[in-house]
Amino acid sequence: MTVVLAVYNTMPYLVECLRSLEAQSIGHDRMEIIAVDDGSTDGSGAELDQFAARRPVLVTVLRQPNSGGPAGPSNRALDNANGRYVFFIGADDYLGPQALERMVDAADRTGADVVLGKVVGVNGRYIDQRIFAANQDDVDLLHSPLPWSLANTKLFRRQLIEDRKLRFATDMPMLSDQPFTIEALVNAGRIAVVADYDCYFAVRRMDRSNISFRPRRLTSRIACIERLVDFVGELIEPGPRRDAILLRHFNWEISLLLRRPFLLAPRDEQERVYAGVRRLADAYLTDRIRRRLFVPERLRIEYAQRATLDELLALLRSQDESPDPPLVVEAGRSFVTYPGFRDARWGLPDTSFELTPGTEADWLARMQTTAVRWRGGRVVEIEAVASVADLPGQVNGPPRLLVGDVPAPAVVVTQEGDLTRVRASIPLRRLLAGQARLGAVRVVRAEVDTAGGTGVADLRAPRKLVVRRRIAFQGLRLFLVTLTANHRDRLIVAVAPVTLGRVVRRLRSVTRGGR
């Protein structure tokens, strides 16, 4: 089998990636690694050379000038691949020791053309876990959560790749792996899932320099998203199968365009995105997709489709700056009273504002961070508010706050009119326990239990949130603890190791500032 590794400035994460490949239980005689250095300038090329010198039979290193993304180097590696199977790995990610062996065994046993190995996120990297609920020998796009796992970090039968002449779109600076993956999934004779083993560890770099997190002009993003959605529209005929894939794109890629960066963008960028989202909604947003969208995402897209740009901006400011509006419950149906609800000027039906079955619990878990503070320097105290009257009366037991997988040991809930306030305290020692060498980023979330299931939502946080950072010891190691809002306005706790290099850079910056 062939492992494809596109590399551009991924130190020091590349070291762990290469170690994990070298340690694969499948054996070096059954694998080859084709690594393409895409013009790295941070020592990644030298690290590849050292690895190749140790394992010359295992790895081939190719070099090229920087192409601007992983598509070009991935295509070049594919052109040189010899294995029956091809596996793509990000150079900042790593594998479990048995990952390749388990996926190849699954492909050989089932005859699958594509195998998904369980992917888990590191440092707060979000990975949808629904497809990994159980091992499966045959899944499809319509009757599974497969459309929510469209990254190319999978095992592909190379015969399928060559028969379909699959390659990555080099003119898409982002999302270039999705057309490749979608076409492979659509044409695969069988798709299998290895869910009982953590195969792939997707790492969010501490500095958020992963290519998927890099800021891009909204005009570039909408252009790539339009290409992707149009590709799906041309590949799959209208109907439930196409809607199953496009639901993911409307819920994720398209709705995420209409967030804070859109509010802050120049008017010409806003107009371009507004026109692009409206065109995609007019062309592809079916009632089947619309009903399955969560209310905030559904309304953003419907406003882009039906309202003026300024009316859309007003809605987005409301969603961005204000707590959630209250619910109206009538005859067992729940409506979120966002601007435009039952306003004749807008002409939006009640269904645009309705919480559809299965989403009520997640709505009850939605909270806005109101305060974060250190108590005595050793305890983090978080306060949040839910726009729900009598939340305790609608859930089973008190809400839970978790920092990543670290639960708050105690949560205090108080009621103030139509608002429910929650306060939780988490000892610093629990956040530092078991810290990885490169640190960790954890998203804070709320969970509630209801008769209809467990609701989960990340805590929203104002971008202006400022909390003094703390230096803390864990054993003999020193860490910097930061509490802030991330790029999606979610509350996070980042724990970064304080290295000698970091201290030197800080001293230099302070010295330069004092001159």
Describe the structure.
There is one protein chain. This protein has 515 residues and is α+β, with helices and mostly antiparallel strands. The protein is built from 17 helices and 21 strands. The strands form 4 sheets. The protein has an 8-stranded mixed β-sheet with strand order 3-2-1-4-7-6-8-5, sandwiched between helices. Strands 13, 14, 17, 18, 19, 20 and 21 form a 7-stranded antiparallel β-sheet that branches. Strand 17 and strand 18 form a beta hairpin. Helix 6 packs parallel to helix 7, helix 7 packs parallel to helix 10 and helix 8 crosses helix 12. The longest helix has 18 residues. It is globular and about 70 Å long. It starts with a strand and ends with a helix.
Strand order of the main beta sheet, please? 3-2-1-4-7-6-8-5
Can you tell me the overall shape? globular
Cα radius of gyration in angstroms? 24 Å
Question: Mind summarizing the main beta sheet?
Answer: 8 strands, mixed
- Low-confidence parts lasting 5 or more residues at pLDDT below 50? none
Average predicted confidence as pLDDT: 90
Strand portion, in percent?
25-35%
Q: What is the number of helices?
A: 17
Helix content: 25-40%
* Count of beta strands: 21
**Helix/strand-derived class?**
alpha+beta
Q: Whole-Å distance between the termini? A: 57 Å
